[in-house]
Amino acid sequence: MARYTGPKTKISRIFGEPITGNGKWLTKNSNPPGMHGAARKRKSLGEYALQLREKQKAKYTYGLLEKQFHNTFNEAARRKGVTGEQLIKLLEARLDNTVYRLGIAPSRQAARQLVSHKHVTVNGEVVNIPSFSLKPGDVIGLKDKAAHNSSITSNIRPKNPKFNWLEFNEGEMRGTFIAYPERESVPENIKESLIVELYSK
Q: How does it assemble (predicted)?
């Protein structure tokens, strides 16, 4: 299963945002990586560099590698509507991301592991593909054995009420993907228009 396995702290320091974790260490060292850190003289980024940087941020945020991200973009471009917004909707509809948004896992990486280890069901059927794309009305849950596993249930937290495209019943350990989210409802600081410009070159 392909995934990024490099240093997560370094990635977040590049962007100055906690895109791969809770970011508690950013208060101690938020300098960009490199020998001279903040003292290094850095040129202002050009148009292409800004576009590439935004694509890299989206990839690391949602845990995709290049080929998978490119395929997701192509699918977004085929759909009706604004391509950038469709891209965000498809990324949010991934099963691993939805498990994280529901509060079942503390991070997208942990959600990916839950899915790949066959702890998660969709409409009552076990799905072990983190990139599985959900559709409105799909019901996400935990297998009976996983729902009684304290190491899993201890990490469950209340769903953020801002994620109004999802519903979660903590008593039944089941959530529903109600609809694709509107762009303004997704909190990630990603300028998707720059990604569209990059792929349109």
A: Part of the 30S ribosomal subunit. Contacts protein S5. The interaction surface between S4 and S5 is involved in control of translational fidelity.
